[in-house]
Design goal:
The structure is a homodimer of 289-residue chains. Chain A contains seven helices and 16 strands.
Chain lengths: 289, 289
Amino acid sequence: MEEYEIAIIGSGPAGISAAINAKVRKKSFILFGNKSLSEKVRCSHLIQNYPGFPDISGRELNEKLAEHMRRMNISVAEERINGIYDIGGYFMLLAGENEYKADTVIIATGARTVKELPGERELLGKGVSYCATCDGNFYKGKTIAVICDYKEAEEEVDFLAGLAEKVYFSPSYKTDFSRNNVVTLSSPVVSVKGEKHADAVSLKDGSEIAVDGVFFLRQSVSADVLLNGLEMDNGSIAVGRDMSTSVKGCFAAGDCTGAPYQIAKAIGEGNTALHSAIRYLAGKKAQTE
Amino acid sequence: MEEYEIAIIGSGPAGISAAINAKVRKKSFILFGNKSLSEKVRCSHLIQNYPGFPDISGRELNEKLAEHMRRMNISVAEERINGIYDIGGYFMLLAGENEYKADTVIIATGARTVKELPGERELLGKGVSYCATCDGNFYKGKTIAVICDYKEAEEEVDFLAGLAEKVYFSPSYKTDFSRNNVVTLSSPVVSVKGEKHADAVSLKDGSEIAVDGVFFLRQSVSADVLLNGLEMDNGSIAVGRDMSTSVKGCFAAGDCTGAPYQIAKAIGEGNTALHSAIRYLAGKKAQTE
């Protein structure tokens, strides 16, 4: 299993800033995200308030950040982190079938724009799952609903279709994905039903479909779903001035910590989070010596 | 008297970031500082961790910031703010003989590197002053000591020499400044003496000189000296996550709020402080309507 001092989750400005500082400080670290870095930055038309770059396009700034990373030999691990587990003293990060171990974690996953459906949070772990790899095997030969908000996740839908008897597929985008045992719903899923366990989904047209389980394949999930026990504040990760979270050894930076949703703020917080992580590592080392 | 919605004090990365955002948001503001912007940035040999500019010299980054300001038509008012007064609802800023009025203040004065002398803080306002213009007239025909740590302040020493009978001058740098009634001390002042009022200074060589008052002409003073009642935390301005200070309507950003002392952190905090100031202004406007 790969081991690092610092795991940084997210390749937007906050994660990049943390990674650059980790490199300067010669720490062992891994940066999870996308090689294309931040879609949000890339799609910004014009950025006027990142000091040093007057009137730069988002595409160009994203390229400048990529160039900075190339020059420092920082690469991005294209892994989707499905869960972070606090093992007391270190963290386990699950990415599909891969596991990573890290002494500290910096969450820089961006603002969460998706609204959870009624029943989703209440039945999480009780028939509702965010991770096909983790929980797919529980639904061999069963009937499931899969709510999916990004095309790249269709290989996970394919994986689930290979296990389940029947899949009701509810994509929030246009797609021609099809399999023999997959029914693409024309009316979107609006809630998950069930008392102690998910047993149905309701559609917008008013109908209900009985299922054994429900998978949400979301581009982003709430951080407290990623890391159990993480204290939130009005939908954002609650942090102190040093970017520490309620979980010891876990820091957060950027849009996931709340407004203002600004590149400069994210860059600053990534820097601070990394310095706090270094201080935490030093304290931990002093304890064990 | 000039009036603004926002007064920004300090032309380093935090102040610049705040000013750029104030301009984008079309607020009326004034930025106090130096046209050469930040000496600390300018004198940095190599900066590796301001994302977007791999391996840039401090001089070059300072120039990039200056260019950004020029492109946005932001100028720096070269005024030295000697005092900020919270008049309840707005602030008065004194700069020598000039006064400015502002609804909100963003303090971005950088890290304070000067150590106060014993007696300096205790006797402030009781014979100890930081402002020649404000307090010089109290010492007409009297004997004073002037402790000075930057050459540009010598015109204030000159002003004081024109009022006082005798001036004991203690510069912390090399200078050939001289006036008939000015004695330049060869041994530096190490403390201020006095019970209810300053009445002497002690020198490093052990001798004492009786005086009626003591002026400290410092390049930077502690922020709580600048604005009475400002809560400090271990030498830095105490701030919340939104960069608000203990004084309503006053925000702070950059090195003056504490570690890490980093350009990226200062830029991020300047951005956040400005957005908080805008929110404060909106709330104030809503109250008066």
